[in-house]
Here is the input.
Amino acid sequence: MTLGARLTIDGVTKRYGDTAALDDVHLVVEPGSYVVILGPSGSGKTTLLSILGGFTEPTEGRIHIDDTDVTDLPPVRRPTTTVFQDYALFPHMTVGKNIGFGLAMHGIKGDERRRRVETALELVGLPGTGDRHIASLSGGQRQRIALARAVVIEPRVLLLDEPLGALDLKLRRQMQDELSKIQRRLGTTFVHVTHDQEEAMSLADTIVVLRDGRIEDHGPPDRLYLRPSTRFTATFMGDSNLVDGTARATAGGRVEVETTFGRFSVHGRAIRDTPVTVAIRPEHLRADDTGGFQLGEGRVVDRHFIGAHQRCRVALGHTELILNSPAKPALAIDQIVRISADLDDFVLLES
Ligand code: ADP
Here is the structure.
């Protein structure tokens, strides 16, 4: 069992000419945690991971692993290993040789090497495959071998760059479950980059949302999903209905908001008489009047059956809302429905 290290990212900026791929990023990753860096393409995820692994030098800022400043250390001298999206396996070598390669570089030989390779293969669910050739493996198996090759040298921080990006959706979801089990068994600090918010939510202790090289928001998945602090997080992490309004009165950590759906009071802070936005998740809207707040009557303009639920667009006056409700009773296009919700599920976004 390798114990994970603490990672401290202190004011890291990376500039390419006039472009700032990262802009003053500060983050502490707790030992043994599973952190997912989530963001759209071009937000700086790969650059950040590459700086942590020592493949890219930051323009400014420092990286500490536990108490050691590793900013100027090359990859091999850091207690980190990176799993790349394309796996970077040696196609002409057997599975065992691929996994044992890093151990050989560290001078670990003979029986101990064989034993550690086999343990790593067991960990990824492929025991006894050491003699097989890489070319004979499926995509999912190659992914596991890449993971085994990374964990066999017992890094204190494992860096994963879109590690499941090449897999089809079903295998991807299955490997997510396995990754999370493996991480818990090893206790290694995992930093995993993805643009897939579902993957991020299913794996992370902490999600870090990157946008244009800056940290937009970070926290546990449920907090980010249920109480996003910004418009970007609310819409990037799943769907949200964004309702514009005006802050009318503020007191005791609550704000009275005036909207086209009437006035209501939500948690948060705002300046009186300024525009505000309230986010409401589609699954928090009800197609009946059982919620604590009535938004009004609407007409169903679109409906899709998604298996576990139905997804509708409902027009209320000039506004359209997305609503996910249980599949039964089925709603019909043009049906008039009352829409309600609980005010606790309304989230006032930072302006
Ligand atoms: P992501 O992984 O989130 O897609 P990247 O870290 O790859 O984002 O890129 C962030 C930004 O930095 C992008 O605007 C990208 O074009 C730029 N960038 C990344 N690497 C380089 C490079 N080697 N040279 C110039 N610009 C780069």
User: Anything to note?
Assistant: The two ends are 45 Å apart (CA to CA). The longest strand covers residues 293-305. The chain has eight helices and 19 strands. The first helix runs from residue 45 to 53.
